[in-house]
User: Fold ATP-dependent RNA helicase DbpA from Metapseudomonas boanensis.
Amino acid sequence: MTTAAFSTLPLSAVTLANLDTLGYREMTPIQAQSLPLILKGHDLIAQAKTGSGKTATFGIGLLEPLNPRFFGCQALVLCPTRELADQVAKEIRRLARGHGNIKVLTLCGGVPFGPQVGSLEHGAHIIVGTPGRVQEHLRKGTLVLDGLNTLVLDEADRMLDMGFYDSIAEIIGQTPAKRQTLLFSATYPAGIEQLAKTFMRNPQQVKVEALH
Ligand code: ADP
Ligand code: MG
Assistant:
């Protein structure tokens, strides 16, 4: 498998510097296949095993079009669990260094609702959360997704296994039609195809079998 440096992509100097600091020099195969499509604005279904670098793939993709001066939610990442949401938020914060004052907020169940409302009032550029809690905030009107550019469904197969299809569908119904949708999954069960057919616009598909 040939590798390619991140510097071959049309990325901002700040992102390239952050990747260098993180020690990410060569793209992993899923990054090399996905990022050119993501940066062109395509919807994408990416299938790759755990540990293949999916977080940085969508993290870079959602940060490039972000406007730090607009304090509305521009990117939403849905994850199956709070632990995964915390890991994703941590990685996005690292990738966002130097991009301006970018706020990444996690919205997960199992923690009190009120403090999340307080944080949302201060504004957040990027939200990483679990479907149930995000849906709850949308229903209460404490979260508005009118300014969303990028929607990421991370570990989509696990979210479907956990019975989140309807929550995801309701959340997507609150987002602008003109958005980029990126779906990441280790497997490709029927529910994923249903999600893609219903909510994605001409999605490009990439698949990586081996880890590296
Ligand atoms: P996945 O979501 O596919 O399971 P992660 O995004 O959690 O994988 O990444 C797995 C590990 O690989 C993380 O420790 C991450 O820091 C590291 N990683 C991601 N991209 C690169 C890269 N291009 N070069 C080196 N390490 C990377
Ligand atoms: Mg992952």
